[in-house]
Amino acid sequence: MKRNKRTVGFAVFCISLLFLSACASMPKNATAVTDFNVEKYLGQWYEIARKDFKFEKDLNNVTANYSLRDDDKVKVLNKGYHTIDKEWKESEGKAKFRGEKNVGELAVSFFGPFYSGYNVIAIDNEYKYALVAGKNLDYLWLLSRETTMPEKVKNEFLEKAKSIGYDVSDLVWVKHDKNN
């Protein structure tokens, strides 16, 4: 009897993980870019603005570095300066494509087997500026290869985000005033 309960419990756990993974997608009205080139996306990005959430709360000077791993996944290294603790924080994760590698639909994980949506929904031809949507309307990032973003690009990204359903009035505009 104990063995059957364990087997059923394990099966429920596995099904729950599959369900959570399947739910890790993107907001209803968002579409990931096609003709996405992960090689061009690699390297350092500066966070210009974001929807705030607990893992980035009180962080400024936030960067994300992407590099290829040996297992066809992407290494994600996020850094930021915690303005309350007065120290640098760092988090390493991994990202994988949810489908075709030429579509900017990825899933990212910083906590073991749990993945969440990471969707490049706008990017310029030179891969200097990107708009990234999370799994729902609580997650959004404006990224740049430099610590600033031209107003024209910023406004285009904000309009796109609003058309998807994002409330952009509560974005955190990230300061970049420290070096690490």
Task: Characterise the protein shown here.
This protein has a single domain, classed as Calycin beta-barrel core domain (Lipocalin), CATH 2.40.128.20. The chain contains 3 helices and 9 strands. The chain is an alpha+beta fold and 180 residues long. Strands 1-2-3-4-5-6-7-8 form an 8-stranded antiparallel barrel.
Secondary-structure map:
Layout: H1 2-23, H2 38-41, E1 43-50, E2 59-68, E3 74-82, E4 87-97, E5 105-111, E6 114-123, E7 129-133, E8 140-144, H3 151-164, E9 172-173
Antiparallel strand pairs: 1-2, 1-8, 1-9, 2-3, 3-4, 4-5, 5-6, 6-7, 7-8
Provide the CATH architecture: Beta Barrel
Proportion of strand residues: 35-45%
Rounded to the nearest angstrom, the radius of gyration is 18 Å
> Going by CATH, what is the homologous superfamily?
Calycin beta-barrel core domain
| Structural class determined from secondary elements | alpha+beta
Globally, the shape reads globular
Number of strands: 9
Low-pLDDT stretches: 5-24
Instruction: State the assembly state of the protein chains.
Output: single chain
Strands of the widest sheet, in order across it, are: 1-2-3-4-5-6-7-8
Largest sheet descriptor = 8 strands, antiparallel, barrel
Considering DSSP H and I runs of 4 or more, what fraction of the residues is helical? 10-25%
Task: Estimate the mean pLDDT confidence.
Answer: 88
In the residues, how many domains can be counted? 1
CATH class: Mainly Beta
End-to-end Cα distance = 57 Å
The succession of helices and strands, N to C, reads HHEEEEEEEEHE
CATH topology: Lipocalin
Given the structure, what is the number of helices? 3
